[in-house]
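>> received
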Amino acid sequence: MDIHDLATRVAAGERRALARAITLVESGRSDHRTQATELLDMLSPNGRQALRIGLSGTPGVGKSTFIETFGMFLIQQGLTVAVLAVDPSSARSGGSILGDKTRMEHLSREKNAFIRPSPSQSQLGGVARRTREAVALCEAAGFDVVLIETVGVGQSETMVAEMSDLFLLLLAPAGGDELQGVKRGIMEIADLILVNKADGDLKSTAIRTCADYSGALRLLRKRIYDPDGYPKAMTVSAVTQDGLIDAWAAMKELVDWRKAEGHWNKRRAQQARHWFEEDLRHGLLSVLTQAGTRARINDLGDRVAAGEISATRAAEEVLAELRLHTRFAN
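>> returned
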């Protein structure tokens, strides 16, 4: 594979080259990882930045419908949109449905849009391990907005916040019990809570639900990187497009304030450091999968299960051997 040619074509905005590049960075093969790193090194100096928007929500809330409607709205504003939709992988087979592209029929036909479904591959938070690199490739390809859709709602959704400039939590109109079902952690990282399906018979319910969440947000500790009034809850309808203009205006207002106050660049720098440390941790953990170390871990695991040694002592023995190995390697 000619990496230099691929980088040139990605930078020129070629969709097929972008898809091929994302396939490369998602690969776990060691030779592909080397090529992917080289590709990202070539593309990083171009300095292009997109607005990265992470989005999550409860099952059945209409995430795909909202993303399609919102994506079409952004294109009408003269923007280009990339959608990275992370589908849940089977814990047993590792496979996934990857059906988001078929659910976004209109958006997938737009020349100013790019949709890429990726399997979560058991990654916590529904964010594929290499989603961050796929975001960087979409930026290098010149997209104005990158939407990152994740699976489910949970405490580990903080992962998507570490690769996004804005995090949207999409919820459906419901009673007070729904508020109890949403984890405080995800409420704390959300920049906007959008109550979807605010149309027809559900409109009045959506307004009440929005008021409930607005009250809940006021109880949370104010974040230093938010202006007054944020985070906020708003109502939208992916069917009628009601509320989309106001929601987009709120997003732009928040982004403009963070840029003016210096929080934008500071946040991007913190995220870069976070992912450096995550890659380092992953690399260190991969050492544990090497044949000799794996056998030693299995043996100690059997002894822990049999009660012959404590879990703490077993872990210390493995770590001590790794430290010794590292010392000799140097």
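>> Strands lie at 51-57, 81-87, 113-119, 145-149, 166-171, 192-195, 232-235.
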